[in-house]
Amino acid sequence: MTNPTAAMIVIGDEILSGRTRDSNMHHLAGQLTEAGIDLKEVRVVGDERGTIIAAVQALATVYDYVFTSGGIGPTHDDITADCIAAAFDVGIDVRADAKAVLAEHYAKSATDLNDARLRMARIPDGATLIDNPVSAAPGFLLRNVHVMAGVPAVFEAMVASVLPTLTGGAPLISKTMRIERGEGDIAGPLGVLAKEYPLLSMGSYPFQKDGKYGAHIVIRGNDADEIDAALGKLAVAFP
Amino acid sequence: MTNPTAAMIVIGDEILSGRTRDSNMHHLAGQLTEAGIDLKEVRVVGDERGTIIAAVQALATVYDYVFTSGGIGPTHDDITADCIAAAFDVGIDVRADAKAVLAEHYAKSATDLNDARLRMARIPDGATLIDNPVSAAPGFLLRNVHVMAGVPAVFEAMVASVLPTLTGGAPLISKTMRIERGEGDIAGPLGVLAKEYPLLSMGSYPFQKDGKYGAHIVIRGNDADEIDAALGKLAVAFP
After folding, report:
1. What is the pLDDT along chain A (239 residues), one digit of tens a residue?
2. What fold is seen in the domain A173-237?
3. Which contiguous run of DSSP H or E holds residue B192?
4. Which DSSP helix (H) or strand (E) runs through B86?
5. Which of A183, A200, A218 to probe by mutation at the B interface, max B CB count within 10 Å?
């Protein structure tokens, strides 16, 4: 049985301009791996309607789950919700349940629920709300696309809300061996080993630090015994 | 005159599994912005031949420049060079000039230039080498695709080699105003301002820190005077 697959779309000009360093991709990648869901592709796109719609349509048909981050705030450049509606050709409007969540949140601080804030209650027809315990404004799930905030604290809280609702597979097991030899010396035996264990994935990540060099060899798979057996052979080759 | 456009492909299972946090995207984004080249899209893909080829073909036809990072080392999972050759339907083999660079480098440390290391001299037909001052093994440019290493120190050195060869546009100027008001209060006036200055891009990035909250408003464009004028109006609206 193969694991379910996933893709992510990171939305925001600030990532592509280098102003902001994205952290949501790395967070989601780790969480999905633990849940046994294989993240296969990430696209980072700007706040451009056509590009966002094309990415949603391309990825939602190929992968089991799609996750987006960014573009669901109150300002004019927050266009993600409208793009998702357009990608699936459904309507979008302020929805009563989302408005109620915002109204309750802003009443606490006697803050006006003005037109800009109300934009955050615009939800595509047929979507399910995703809880935002940090700042109230909800994300949503439409078909297989989970639409979440870009602010890392909010994104991470939404991921925590969503994860228990997903059907995961076997968690990927990953073990690492540090070998203080040039990667070019490791490559030959590692390639032979990779052919011998076609169900395991083997990666080599070179390092150079404090005058020492070598590579971390990472072996990943679903079967711990098989990983241990492969690591054992590697240890014999590089004692 | 519009700026040249660019896309990036980050290649590596280790990014998608959450093992490694990519830093090359953020580095390249900042460097391109300074050079007046608009990074429009980034794709992160695994070490899978079909996915890499599809990404290269899709992006190389749409954007002026494409940059890849990862997958050009000596191990069996380093398949980027072969994928680039396949994407453009050209041959690939060990090339004399690349082999000479490696031979000279490894001779210094009396290291054997074995078959695995020789893989790093496999260069697609018609490509130009990209200098690697850190660890010798070269990157290459084929058509509009710059193929570079995944190790950040090497990637950054290759970017530095490549940048002077690119035709840039007007560097994007970016100015930021910090406003200690709820983003929902800023959104209305900011939306009006964005319509008034269609050539400027305006983004709102909320913060919450040490009991204070508000948003950083970032205005980007090529004309400093226009940016200053817009910021002046924003300062009047939010004194």
Report:
1. 688 999 999 999 999 999 999 999 999 999 999 999 999 999 999 999 999 999 999 999 999 999 999 999 999 999 999 999 999 999 999 999 999 999 999 999 889 999 999 999 999 999 999 999 998 999 999 999 999 999 999 999 999 999 999 988 888 888 999 999 999 999 999 999 999 999 999 999 888 878 888 999 999 988 999 999 999 999 999 98
2. Alpha-Beta Plaits (3.30.70)
3. helix B183-196
4. helix B80-87
5. A183
How close B227 gets to chain A, by Cα (Å)? Answer: 17
Within 10 angstroms of residue B74's Cβ, the number of other Cβ atoms is 26
Task: Tell me if A17 and B202 make a contact (CB, 8 A cut-off).
Answer: no
CATH of B5-165, one of 2.60.120.10, 3.60.10.10, 3.40.980.10, 3.40.640.10: 3.40.980.10
Contact B222/A at CB under 8 A: no
Yes or no, beta carbons of B43 and A42 under 8 Å apart? yes
ipTM, two decimals, is 0.92
Between chains, do A42 and B47 touch, taking CB under 8 Å as contact? no
C-alpha to C-alpha distance for A71 and B154, rounded to whole angstroms: 33
The reply to whether A111 touches chain B by the CB within 8 Å rule is: yes
Residues 179-208 of A with CB under 8 A from B: 182-188, 190-191, 194-195, 201-206, 208
Q: How is A129-166 classified by DSSP, letter by letter?
A: EE--TTT---EEEETTEEEE-SSHHHHHHHHHHHGGGS
Residues in contact with B90: Cβ distance below 8 Å, sequence separation at least 6, in sequence order: B124, B125, B126, B142
Residue in chain A lying closest to B113 (CA) = A184
* pTM as predicted: 0.92
For chain B, give every domain's residue range: 5-165, 173-237
Under an 8 A CB cutoff, do B188 and A116 touch? yes
- Between chain A and chain B, the number of residue pairs with CB atoms below 8 A apart is 196
